[in-house]
Design a protein that fits this description.
Elements (H helix, E strand, L loop, with lengths): L13 E5 L3 H12 L3 E5 L5 H8 L4 E3 L13 E4 L4 H10 L3 E4 L12 E5 L2 E5 L6 H14 L2 H20 L3 H11 L2 H9 L2 H15 L1
Parallel strand pairs: 1-2, 1-4, 2-3, 4-5
Antiparallel strand pairs: 6-7
Length: 208
């Protein structure tokens, strides 16, 4: 199976998670980070999901799944321990649906993700080996640490300044490309964020 990679805009979109276990909790957490309006359907919940209900972060139907529960859902995730229930959810879903660990019953699969603020690195084996995707994700997490998030925040400010402060188009484009060069990434790993900020600021100062 070949998949088309995409990042979904879920802000204010309805997402339904059927299941209340640890896997469902992880899925709910990711959906909330993306801004989705989440409803969970399950007779029982993990303590983490119970806390989300108490905090009014998610809507909750405390019962087994029923036909019609997915009305208006942009995205659905089936994460119960009942294969039969998961199959019913997959069949009933009006839009995007993912049945955890059963690619044949999904119309999309969720990659293993490294998140560094606005940077998302997604790894997928197209359902062949989710475990390998997780191993590769852990390697990426080591390669791209929290310092990258701080650098991206710095780049956002510097880029905005460069767009107005460097009048020559060619020089401006060269400077912006330099912010994302392999050289800068290497310096970030070897010299640290403070040194990279100093170098970038010096280059910008020479151009304005």
């Amino acid at each position: 199976m070949n998949y088309y990679p995409a990042f979904l805009k879920l802000k204010s979109r309805k997402a339904v998670v059927v299941g209340g276990g640890k896997v469902a909790e992880r899925k709910v957490s990711a959906l909330l980070k993306a801004g989705a309006q989440v409803t969970v359907i399950s007779p029982s919940l993990t303590p983490g999901l119970q806390k989300a209900v108490s905090g009014k972060k998610i809507s909750y139907l405390p019962r087994l799944y029923r036909r019609g529960d997915l009305k208006g859902a942009f995205l659905t995730i089936a994460a119960t321990d009942s294969p039969e229930t998961n199959r019913r959810v997959s069949k009933d879903a009006p839009g995007l649906v993912n049945v955890v660990d059963v690619p044949s019953e999904c119309n999309f699969i969720a990659p293993s993700v490294v998140r560094r603020g606005p940077l998302l690195l997604a790894v997928s084996t197209s359902g062949t080996s989710p475990a390998l995707a997780k191993t590769l994700r852990k390697e990426l997490e080591k390669s791209y640490g929290p310092e990258l998030l701080e650098y991206l925040r710095f780049v956002r400010k510097v880029r905005a300044k460069a767009m107005t402060a460097i009048p020559e188009k060619d020089k401006r484009e060269a400077f912006l490309k330099g912010l994302a060069s392999a050289e800068v990434l290497a310096l970030l790993r070897t010299k640290g964020i403070a040194e990279v900020k100093k170098i970038v600021a010096g280059r910008l100062k020479k151009l304005i």
